[in-house]
């Protein structure tokens, strides 16, 4: 993504006071208060101005020069940033849902933890300005500039459109990129460590020299992608060759475990699923896996809605993108587990009460819950020490006496102050 700017004289330079006044009027409009006017920064020069935390939802920033702007935590949902020059801009934690970022120059920009859900970052078409000029905002000759060394670490890019973009050496580590469209994009030497690319369209993408280690690629379209010298160590992919015997063995093991649970240990036997890859099973919905041992197991992407996992040992397990709605995780050991992007709405993650007055809390110490949805979950007494909670949603969750020391909470919603 690159921008060919008009000559400098075509831009009206706005100082901080003027920018603040326009933002104030726009915020009055957003709040339906008198005197509100939609912000129009099209073809204006706002370089280095401070817009931190500002509400610019639906604002028009077409072709604006915003080099080095401070936009941390700004609200830019549905904003028009077509051809905007955001070189070196500070956008960490910004809200850019469904924003139009076609042809925007994001070189050296920091979008760590930003929410770009369904944003459009594709190269754009020529754009007419005020009628007296016509500027081509995407210059194919300058495409190598692209989003070089831009930072999207931990950003939400689910459903975003990135087809044809140039993101050479950009940082997408731990980004949520489910169902994103990256067709024919250039991601050479990009850092994609831990990125969730489930069901993304990666057709014809150039990942030469990219680091895709520990990424999630389940369901991704990889037709004609280029992965020469790419690092795919630990990446989770659809199995090239199914192993029906292994899957049948795991199913039988879990059926026996369920029987063991339901008969109080008189029949069946407990399952040992340590380091097992269970992704091919598709669904464990309502499965009774009480007290199961599955340390380091791979559940990523599974439907586990309503599963009974109370007292289970899931330390270090990979549960990225799992549907765990209403799952019973009382007293479960999830220390170091990977739960980024998982759906834990209404999940039971409170204490497990045992005979003799023993109480076992749900242990999520050091777990990664980035972008997870824990709204209305029961997290009473839960141990979340040092957990990664950035962009997680705790709306309506019961966090009574939960331990939250040392957590990363950038952009998380519903957490106590």
General description of the model:
By secondary structure, the chain is low in regular secondary structure. The protein has a domain at 243-417: Pectate Lyase C-like (3 Solenoid). Helix content is 8%, strand content 3%. The chain has 2 helices and 6 strands; from the N terminus they run βαβββαββ. It has helices at 16-30, 244-262, and strands at residues 12-13, 44-45, 127-128, 134-135, 352-353, 359-360. A two-stranded parallel sheet has the order 1-2. A two-stranded antiparallel ribbon has the order 3-4. Helix 1 links the parallel strand 1 (12-13) and strand 2 (44-45). The longest helix has 19 residues, at 244-262. The chain starts with 11 loop residues before the first strand and ends in a 57-residue tail after the last strand.
């Amino acid at each position: 993504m690159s921008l060919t700017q008009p000559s400098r004289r075509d831009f009206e330079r706005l100082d901080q006071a003027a920018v603040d006044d326009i933002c104030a009027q726009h915020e009055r409009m957003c709040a339906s208060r008198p005197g509100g006017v939609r912000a129009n920064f099209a073809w204006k020069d706002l370089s280095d101005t401070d817009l931190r935390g500002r509400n610019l939802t639906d604002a028009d920033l077409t072709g604006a020069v915003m080099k080095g702007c401070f936009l941390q935590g700004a609200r830019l949902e549905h904003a028009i940033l077509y051809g905007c020059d955001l070189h070196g801009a500070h956008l960490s934690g910004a809200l850019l849902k469904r924003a139009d970022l076609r042809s925007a120059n994001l070189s050296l920009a920091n979008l760590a933890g930003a929410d770009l859900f369904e944003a459009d970052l594709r190269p754009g078409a020529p754009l007419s300005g005020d009628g007296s000029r016509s500027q081509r905002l995407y210059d194919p000759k300058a495409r190598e500039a692209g989003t070089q060394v831009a930072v999207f670490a931990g950003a939400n890019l689910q459903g975003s459109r990135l087809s044809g973009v140039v993101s050479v050496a950009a940082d997408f580590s731990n980004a949520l990129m489910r169902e994103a469209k990256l067709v024919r994009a250039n991601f050479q030497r990009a850092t994609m460590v831990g990125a969730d690319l489930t069901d993304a369209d990666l057709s014809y993408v150039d990942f030469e020299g990219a680091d895709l280690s520990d990424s999630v690629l389940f369901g991704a379209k990889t037709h004609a992608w280029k992965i020469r010298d790419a690092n795919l160590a630990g990446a989770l992919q659809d199995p090239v060759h199914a192993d029906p015997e292994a899957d049948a063995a795991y199913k039988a093991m879990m059926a026996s475990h369920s029987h063991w649970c339901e008969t109080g240990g008189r029949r069946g036997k407990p399952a040992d699923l340590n380091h097992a890859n269970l992704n091919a099973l598709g669904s464990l919905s309502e499965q009774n896996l009480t007290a199961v041992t599955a340390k380091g197991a791979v559940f990523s992407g599974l439907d586990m809605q309503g599963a009974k996992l109370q007292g289970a040992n899931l330390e270090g397990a990979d549960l990225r993108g799992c549907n765990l709605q209403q799952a019973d995780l009382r007293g479960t050991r999830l220390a170091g587990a990977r739960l980024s992007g998982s759906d834990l709405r209404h999940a039971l993650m409170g204490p497990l009460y045992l005979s003799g007055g023993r109480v076992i809390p749900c242990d999520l110490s050091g777990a990664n819950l980035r972008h997870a949805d824990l709204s209305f979950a029961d997290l009473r007494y839960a141990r979340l020490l040092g957990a990664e909670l950035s962009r997680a949603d705790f709306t309506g969750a019961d966090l009574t006496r939960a331990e939250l020391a040392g957590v990363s909470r950038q952009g998380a919603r519903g957490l106590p102050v």
